[in-house]
């Protein structure tokens, strides 16, 4: 197995090599500053005039020189050691640097042929930055070589570890801004090295960039004494290597030495694990890079210090078009990089600038690891018939849906054992969520100490469990974006912790879909279980079904939400999700025993429709329209709707009842608003235009109203769902507390079908009395009424 960092036997870089490294760095700095300011005159072939300057100055200079230094020195070691490498750029607005470097190495022009590597292309590169119709100020899908959205801080190191998993020959460098290092997710991510397998995984090289300031305040880590910071990083399991200063020549020499030292240590650790069988967890290197914020920029502006202070964070000279002194300073700043030495008369980078740049796909902007769709292979999902539960009659047998799914996931895990491109992640809940069958195929990744009573820990495992939803999400995103597959299993209430992370990933996918050079990646799949309706021993704190609401606010071409009502429909939905590309699939399914409603063949057909009539459950005779539609979405709501239909069949046999089950929630949207949406003819045919619709929904009721508010029969739609009423109680009491129970649904039918309120008064009273009996019963006995607990469809 290849070591990601091959031992390097050459001596320290010569003065000539350092000179060319500095030339590359200066060229990148020039282009980064130019992107913030210049509309025209990219090579400064004439004195700067106000019309050469952008009317709105946007961008972030402060972090750019440090990022350019890292990029330059990564180029050197990649070329010298023939490495496959990827870099995660953590600082939020490092766009100018990575764009500049991808242009210099030529990868940008390969993706955008009009941005040529000459004066004309340089002008376009500078103009498009933070300009209408151009590119964002941060790292984004448009930037070659990127997998990390720079719009929100805290996730770079988790993404880096996710990218390294199961890529044994890959070096993943990760630049961590010192402002970003203050976030909770980043702080938790330092523990990811306890899960990195030096045999089967690649290496992560964190580079903590301390430039001292955030937008307006100092950063915590930059103000720690070096000994205290060292102790912190060593406590995290790293060996720090320090680089610092403000003299470029000194810093270049120290950075080159630090890179070589770090990569040699990584190579030694990988060789020891892979060739010598060493199982002790390595203490991986981390580079601590201290350089001034806004390094090489204006030292002072309007009498205030700028370089090395928070004032250099964004635009150091803010009045260039209107203030002649600012314009003079900008020209002096740009000319200090000596662009005439860096670019020839046609604007092409000279040989010295490109001396450190690797070839072909070794370039950071051209690596296929940053375009994971080029690497992804179809997942070997087995036949569902091997795992389906038999259903001779609906509603007579029960299974735990997620346990059934666990058997299928175990097969997938087993069938990918040699190719190692599927992982299951979750916050300490795999067994709790009834997916423990996967342990028969792979243990839990773990590189820290073990005790005799531990179970299923495995240095080479591909089940990832850590009690940080942020870290689970970051790992899986990095894993998917570099060409692999996975699933995130989580308690429904706590997946909200990653609300903003999934938002960023959805935005990434939406933008990537519009870039022809970005190949589709495997979908991000969520399995949300331990859900709101079955929190028998956890209670109110564990009840929140709102993640679905959050996701359905996002890009319709990306998001999908499924609520399978039983084990076989869960298998069908999971099969679709695991095979899909470029989606975020949210699957909500219970782990407690649930009635089996559909055979595997019926489940496939029903899931393909996304929503459909269950003829066997209703009392329509096919000759007339139904008097009422009972609709449901979710496993517990489906059970209560069918129990209500059962009661109506017994007590009001003359009533024509239609039962509709919705698996794919987006089907309720109009087809113009979501690719899975129904047209009005389909919707009206299913729900009617003028009959009452009693809809029992898994989550917050108003979501169904929002999805269907444009439909002709919306005024007849009455939704029952979760309304923030819960505690530790019996399963049926949860639905009673939220008015989702079968008795309340029957009462809703009587209240809303014209003429029934008078004719069925006695039935309604009987339903209300049953709810009263329920309250007394559970308080005396602690269990549900026998008529509820022992109910089956065919009783």
TrEMBL record:
The Xylulose 5-phosphate/Fructose 6-phosphate phosphoketolase N-terminal domain sits at: 14-374
Keywords, alphabetical? Lyase, Thiamine pyrophosphate
> Has keyword Lyase?
yes
Output the InterPro entries linked to this UniProt entry: Phosphoketolase, THDP-binding, Transketo_C/PFOR_II, Xul5P/Fru6P_PKetolase, Xul5P/Fru6P_PKetolase_C, Xul5P/Fru6P_PKetolase_CS, Xul5P/Fru6P_PKetolase_N, Xul5P/Fru6P_PKetolase_ThDP_BS
Which terms does the UniProt entry file under GO BP? Answer: carbohydrate metabolic process
The EC number(s) given in the record are 4.1.2.-
Q: Name one GO molecular function term.
A: magnesium ion binding
Which residue range or ranges hold the Xylulose 5-phosphate/Fructose 6-phosphate phosphoketolase C-terminal domain? 591-793
Under the heading NCBIfam families, the entry gives: PRK05261.1-2, PRK05261.1-4, PRK05261.1-6
Q: Which family does it belong to?
A: Belongs to the XFP family.
What name goes with this protein? Answer: Probable phosphoketolase
Taxonomic source organism: Streptomyces viridochromogenes (strain DSM 40736 / JCM 4977 / BCRC 1201 / Tue 494)
């Amino acid at each position: 197995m290849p070591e990601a960092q091959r031992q390097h036997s050459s001596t320290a870089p010569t003065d000539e090599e350092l000179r060319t490294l500095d030339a590359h760095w200066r060229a990148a700095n020039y282009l980064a500053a130019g992107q913030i300011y210049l509309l025209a005159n990219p090579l400064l072939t004439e004195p700067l005039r106000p019309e050469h300057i952008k009317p709105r100055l946007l961008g972030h200079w402060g972090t750019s020189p440090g990022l350019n230094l890292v990029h330059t020195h990564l180029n050197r070691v990649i070329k010298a050691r023939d490495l496959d490498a990827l870099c995660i750029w953590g600082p939020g607005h490092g766009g100018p640097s990575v764009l500049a470097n991808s242009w210099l190495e030529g990868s940008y022009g390969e993706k955008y042929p009009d941005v040529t590597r000459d004066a004309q292309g340089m002008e376009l590169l500078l103009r498009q930055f933070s300009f209408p119709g151009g590119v964002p100020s941060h790292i984004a899908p448009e930037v070659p070589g990127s997998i990390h959205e720079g719009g929100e801080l805290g996730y770079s190191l988790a993404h880096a570890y996710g990218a390294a998993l199961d890529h044994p020959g890959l070096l993943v460098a990760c630049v961590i801004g010192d402002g970003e290092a203050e976030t909770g997710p980043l702080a938790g991510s330092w523990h990811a090295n306890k899960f990195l397998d030096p045999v089967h995984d690649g290496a992560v090289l964190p580079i903590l960039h301390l430039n001292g300031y955030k937008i307006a305040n100092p950063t915590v880590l930059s103000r720690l004494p070096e000994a205290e910071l060292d102790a912190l990083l060593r406590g995290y399991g790293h060996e720090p290597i320090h680089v610092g200063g403000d003299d470029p020549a000194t810093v270049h020499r120290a950075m080159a030495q630090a890179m070589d030292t770090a990569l040699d240590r990584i190579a030694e650790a990988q060789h020891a694990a892979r060739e010598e069988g060493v199982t002790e967890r390595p203490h991986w290197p981390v580079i601590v890079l201290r350089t001034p914020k806004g390094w090489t920029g204006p030292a002072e502006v309007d009498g205030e210090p700028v370089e090395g202070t928070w004032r250099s964070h964004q635009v150091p000279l803010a009045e260039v078009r209107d203030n002649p002194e600012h314009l003079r300073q900008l020209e002096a700043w740009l000319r200090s990089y000596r662009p005439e030495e860096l670019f020839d008369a046609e604007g092409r980078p000279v040989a010295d600038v490109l001396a450190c740049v690797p070839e072909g796909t070794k370039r950071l902007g051209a690596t296929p690891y940053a375009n994971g769709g080029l690497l992804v292979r179809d997942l070997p999902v087995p036949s569902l018939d091997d795992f389906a539960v038999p259903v001779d009659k609906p509603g007579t047998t029960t299974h735990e849906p997620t346990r059934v799914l666990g058997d299928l996931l175990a097969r997938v895990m087993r069938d990918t054992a040699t190719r190692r491109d599927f992982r299951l992640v979750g916050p300490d809940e795999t067994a709790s969520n009834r997916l423990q069958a996967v342990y028969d195929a792979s243990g839990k990744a773990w590189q820290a100490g073990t005790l005799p009573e531990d179970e299923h820990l495995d240095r080479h495992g591909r089940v990832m469990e850590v009690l940080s939803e942020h870290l689970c999400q970051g790992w899986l995103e990095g894993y998917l974006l570099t060409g692999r597959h996975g699933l995130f299993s989580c308690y429904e209430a706590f997946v909200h912790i990653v609300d903003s992370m999934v938002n960023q990933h959805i935005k990434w996918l939406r933008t990537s879909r519009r870039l022809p050079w970005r190949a589709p990646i495997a979908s991000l799949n969520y399995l949300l279980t331990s859900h709101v309706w079955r929190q028998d021993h956890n209670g109110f704190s564990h009840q929140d079904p709102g993640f679905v609401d959050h996701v359905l606010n996002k890009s319709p071409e990306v998001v999908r939400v499924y609520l399978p009502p039983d084990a076989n429909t869960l298998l069908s939905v999971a099969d679709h999700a695991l095979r899909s590309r470029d989606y975020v699939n949210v699957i909500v399914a219970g782990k407690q025993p649930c009635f089996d409603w559909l055979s595997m063949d019926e489940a496939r057909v029903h899931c393909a429709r996304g929503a459909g009539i269950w003829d066997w459950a209703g009392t329509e005779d096919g000759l007339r329209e139904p008097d009422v539609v009972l609709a449901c979405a979710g496993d517990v709501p489906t059970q209560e709707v069918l129990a209500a239909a059962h009661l109506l069949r017994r007590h009001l046999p003359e009533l024509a009842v239609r039962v509709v089950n919705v698996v794919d929630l987006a089907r309720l949207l109009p087809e113009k608003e979501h690719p899975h949406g129904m047209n009005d003819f389909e919707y009206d045919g299913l729900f009617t235009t003028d009959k009452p619709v009693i809809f029992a929904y898994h989550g917050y009721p108003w979501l169904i109203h929002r999805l269907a508010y444009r439909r002709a029969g919306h005024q007849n739609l009455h939704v029952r769902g979760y309304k923030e009423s819960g505690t530790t109680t019996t399963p049926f009491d949860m639905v009673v507390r939220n008015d989702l129970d079968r008795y309340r649904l029957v009462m809703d039918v009587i209240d809303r079908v014209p003429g029934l309120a008078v004719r069925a008064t006695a039935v309604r009273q009987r339903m209300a009395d049953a709810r009263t009996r329920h309250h007394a019963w559970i308080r005396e006995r602690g269990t549900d009424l026998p008529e509820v607990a022992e109910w089956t469809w065919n009783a």
